[in-house]
């Protein structure tokens, strides 16, 4: 039997600051498309339904989504994989790692707040990876900043040239519709009760737009059209028109104006993803050789999570398919150990509700159950061997020692700490001076400590005492300089499980003074979050 060709894929993540509207937009996207499976990408807030992925008690109490999940839906003959970036004020490494699993990002900006810190941090990771970024200015139904001001801010802060695909008709708070800059048409939206259903759209030819607005929305709206047309001409003169190659090369960022809450411009976003966002591309391996998407199966593990289901202490490894076709039950090779690995229990849906996946293609995210040997950054494959570059670990900024509170639980403590290190829940640092009983946990955001402490007591029955250390900056130290750095005042050198050494400094000033006094020392900054 010959299978029908798989639908083309678009694998994306939304990057934003908390409250910019990511959950609202995610729901709106799923509403417009045919959601095939629904996962925990949407977190429970207010009246909205609770997420299915809030698997920890702590998570429920806070109403946030700690675990990454993915949502897959079909739109215009394409399958869109929306990989969730856990979005709360505190960062964890998970948020960054998700960006290793996508082909492009949607940067969601609150029209009243402009670019905010978390968005900028996430953008830096996109920039490092060369990911194309599409910008959505959200909440245009509410008073906000001036549209041109927002574009200036984007250009200034992130260095991408904004190329608006649409221009709002009406200032923020008076959202009459948009001028589609490529067709010249007016696109008008109609409010529906609570934005609960797909907002009807009306397309009006450019020559009729002004009269249409005057007749249906009054003279102010007709004036707003004139202003939008002026802005359009200005942008054109400025060279701010969309260019596909520049977007794909991460030089420009196409911009849409939207209201996720009212479902305005959500269909345009979906159309843009289908028309412009990149499909999965050949993936470079550790040696820089490209593995074509139609080569033998291969996938990159970007997240490992355990204890999702209290009834079954399982461990899920999430992998993004880079090449070939995945078929459930197929035996794959784990590149790190060269061992065979059965995929009998692969799943597509994350969170509590899961369904088995029979077949998946490049760009899709699969969850592998009880994949005990798989770690973040690992490659699995069939046929021609391949190893993808490891996922960068990020510079920790928070440090705490962990000790077991009940000495009789020492064995469980040791096992738990090792497990959390492997999963990348926290980084674990050790030194001879501190000994095995008080390893140092290092994190990008302090919430990682809470997750670690909760898991140590719930899963391993080994409650821990955490004591913060006053360090805030970490630098990598080459092996032959460890002794020299360790001898410095106020600097501590610790080792990761992989043997690499990190020097910890109280703050940037101490680091700078060490660099000034010892220019011969190589203190290497770690990627993002540093
Ligand atoms: P997040 O996931 O990025 O944190 O944001 P979320 O979607 O939860 O949205 C944050 C708040 O912003 C919510 O209000 C939401 O209703 C509102 N919001 C999102 N998109 C829009 C929009 O396009 N226009 C307007 N006017 N508001 C928007 P809330 O009051 O905090 O929560 P809720 O009780 O409404 O759920």
From TrEMBL:
PROSITE patterns attached to this UniProt entry: G_TR_1 (PS00301), G_TR_2 (PS51722)
Gene3D superfamilies documented for this protein: P-loop containing nucleotide triphosphate hydrolases (3.40.50.300), Peptide chain release factor 3, domain III (3.30.70.3280), Translation factors (2.40.30.10)
Keyword DNA-binding: no
Keywords: Cytoplasm, GTP-binding, Nucleotide-binding, Protein biosynthesis
Localization terms from the record: Cytoplasm
Gene Ontology molecular function: any one: GTPase activity
Gene Ontology terms: biological process: regulation of translational termination
Annotated residues for binding of GTP: 84-88
UniProt entry tagged with the keyword RNA-binding: no
Stored NCBIfam families: prfC, PRK00741.1, small_GTP
Stated family: Belongs to the TRAFAC class translation factor GTPase superfamily. Classic translation factor GTPase family. PrfC subfamily.
HAMAP family reported for this sequence: Rel_fac_3
Role noted for this protein: Increases the formation of ribosomal termination complexes and stimulates activities of RF-1 and RF-2. It binds guanine nucleotides and has strong preference for UGA stop codons. It may interact directly with the ribosome. The stimulation of RF-1 and RF-2 is significantly reduced by GTP and GDP, but not by GMP.
The protein's name: Peptide chain release factor 3
Biological source species: Nocardioides mangrovicus
Lineage: Bacteria, Bacillati, Actinomycetota, Actinomycetes, Propionibacteriales
């Amino acid at each position: 039997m010959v299978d029908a060709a798989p639908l083309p894929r678009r694998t994306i993540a939304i990057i934003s600051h908390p409250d910019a509207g990511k959950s609202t937009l995610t729901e709106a996207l799923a509403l417009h498309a045919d959601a095939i499976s629904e996962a925990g990408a949407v977190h429970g807030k207010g009246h909205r339904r609770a997420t299915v992925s809030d698997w920890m008690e702590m998570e429920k109490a806070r109403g946030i989504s700690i675990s990454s999940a993915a949502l897959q839906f079909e739109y215009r003959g394409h399958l869109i994989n929306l990989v969730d970036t856990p979005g709360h004020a505190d960062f964890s490494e998970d948020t960054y790692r998700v960006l290793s699993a996508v082909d492009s990002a949607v940067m969601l900006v609150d029209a009243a707040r402009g670019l905010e810190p978390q968005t900028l941090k996430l953008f830096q990771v996109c920039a490092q990876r060369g990911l194309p970024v599409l910008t959505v200015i959200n909440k245009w139904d509410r008073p906000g900043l001036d549209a041109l001001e927002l574009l200036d801010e984007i250009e200034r802060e992130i260095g991408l040239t904004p190329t608006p695909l649409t221009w709002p008709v009406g200032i923020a708070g008076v959202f009459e519709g948009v001028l589609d800059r490529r067709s010249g048409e007016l696109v008008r939206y109609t409010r529906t009760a609570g934005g609960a259903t797909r907002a009807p759209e009306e397309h009006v030819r450019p020559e009729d737009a002004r009269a249409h607005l005057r007749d249906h929305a009054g003279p102010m709206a007709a004036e707003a059209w004139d202003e939008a047309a002026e802005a359009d001409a200005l942008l054109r003169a400025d060279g701010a028109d969309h260019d596909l190659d520049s977007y794909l090369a991460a030089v420009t960022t196409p911009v849409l104006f939207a209201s996720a809450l009212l479902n305005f411009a959500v269909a345009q976003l979906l159309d843009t993803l289908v028309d412009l966002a990149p499909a999965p591309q050949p993936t470079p391996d550790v040696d820089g050789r490209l593995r074509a998407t139609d080569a033998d199966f291969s996938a990159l593990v970007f997240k490992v999570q355990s204890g999702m289901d209290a009834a079954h202490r399982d461990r899920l490894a999430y992998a993004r398919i880079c090449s070939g076709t995945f078929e459930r039950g197929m035996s794959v090779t784990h590149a790190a150990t060269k061992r065979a690995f059965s995929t009998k229990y692969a799943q597509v849906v994350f969170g509590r509700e899961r369904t088995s996946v029979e077949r998946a293609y490049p760009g899709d995210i699969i969850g592998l159950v009880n994949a005990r040997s798989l770690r973040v950054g690992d490659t699995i494959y069939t046929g021609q061997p391949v190893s993808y570059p490891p996922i960068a670990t990020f510079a920790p900024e928070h440090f705490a020692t962990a000790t077991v509170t009940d000495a009789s639980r020492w064995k469980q403590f040791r096992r738990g700490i090792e497990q959390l290190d492997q999963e990348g829940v926290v980084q674990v640092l050790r030194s001879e001076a501190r000994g095995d009983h008080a390893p140092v946990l290092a994190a990008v955001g302090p919430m990682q400590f809470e997750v670690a402490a909760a898991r140590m007591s719930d899963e391993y029955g080994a409650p821990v005492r955490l004591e913060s250390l006053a360090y805030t900056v970490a630098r990598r130290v080459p092996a032959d300089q460890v002794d020299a750095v360790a001898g410095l005042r106020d600097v501590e050198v610790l080792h990761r499980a992989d043997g690499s050494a990190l020097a910890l400094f109280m703050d940037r000033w101490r680091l700078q003074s060490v660099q000034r006094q010892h220019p011969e020392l190589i203190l290497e900054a770690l990627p993002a979050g540093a």
